[in-house]
Amino acid sequence: MTRANPPSVAGMILSPAERARALTAAVLDGPDLTGAACTGHAPLFDEPGPREPPEAVDARMDAARAMCTICPVIARCATVADGLTDYQRAGMWAGIIRGRPRTGDES
Ligand code: SF4
Questions:
Q1: Which pLDDT score is estimated for 25?
Q2: Which of 29, 56, 66, 94 is placed for a possible disulfide with 78 were both Cys, Cβ 3.0 to 4.6 Å?
Q3: 73 contact partners, CB below 8 Å, separation of at least 6
């Protein structure tokens, strides 16, 4: 299946809609993520917003990572993330901050 790549713009922040489109495309073209613990909590997993305070980002990422640790499809999620570009996967996937993390983030 061929899918259009989003524009490659360095430093661009994914909107929730763009992230949802990337995840949908990945799911439709990859492993089944039915039962994902993050269902209904997608904004927790987005990359840091440009004006989001660091402590808020840390708290959000901690909450997201906690969901990932109990997620029944974490291995499949990691496979999906590995198949995406940094642009598409910016944010938390399978308990790891991917894409373009802030300086100092590690996972
Ligand atoms: S491992 Fe984390 S990001 Fe991946 S599907 Fe599960 S809860 Fe969502």
A1: 65
A2: 94
A3: 31, 32, 33, 34, 35, 36
